[in-house]
Design a protein that fits this description.
Length: 312
Amino acid sequence: MDYFKSYENLEVHRLMLADKSRMDAYQSFINENAALFSGKIVMDVGSGLGILSLFCAKAGAKKVYAVEGSEMAKMCETIIKDNNFSDTIQVIHKAVEDIQVSDIEKVDIIVSEWMGFYLLHESMLHSVLFARDTFLKDDGLIVPRIANIYLSPVELRDFKSKFDFWNNVYGFDFSSAGEAERNTTFGQAQIENIKAQDLLAEEQLVLSIDLKAATEEDLESIIGTFKFTFKKYGVIHGFALWFDCIFTDGENEETEVTLDTSPNSESTHWKQTIIPVPEAFLVEENGEVNCKLYLKRDGRSYRIELEHDLDS
């Protein structure tokens, strides 16, 4: 599968392992809730090189199934052995959907770093839901438990100015190439790191997913209608999507952990997803914009469409 091929590059894994916000969220929750993991059976869906499996084993899990569909499963097995956890962690080199119910025990906990850009792009969410329905005990725990997507209009002067490069290339006019790049760029979502000051209005919640309750049908098509009030004068170049995840056992708020990918938090490898508008618009403080966001599932990703009334 092409999806698994994309995770057979060690540079991709280094990028994820070097993401401090990502790693700290998982490690903090598992360490602070070691009593939840002690003596339990855990499934790590999409284990990659096995770091989450190692966290769980170190926290006292009795058994960890590290499920990895890509060829990285072999390296994962080596790393598990190098760290002396082979007796606790069993690497399963399969997509979770290909594991037979009779192959393994029911599990107490599912842990997974399944999130993609804007949460849903090329994510493993549907694999996690399959694992939940097939292998998780009725009173089992999913880590993380809650995932939320947010939307806000943004001003991106740096993003827009990069096309100015083409206006003068060693004294020659390359603006036609610039226009072509601009048309391509503004015709699709972009992954950018934006700043808190780029936000023109307070973000609004697009979707909240409870992984213990969500169904495939819930996630097939997502439609949201929003009205934003601009908090300052500016120029709107697009809308930004981002997400956060809540790690919780549903009972102890003191040990909850939030992984936040917003512009207000430390940058992560997910950055933010920008939906550009074809033409920039001046906006005034307390002005408003109405928009409608469509997310339609397409395999492991979603098609994004956004309608607005800026030009009305």
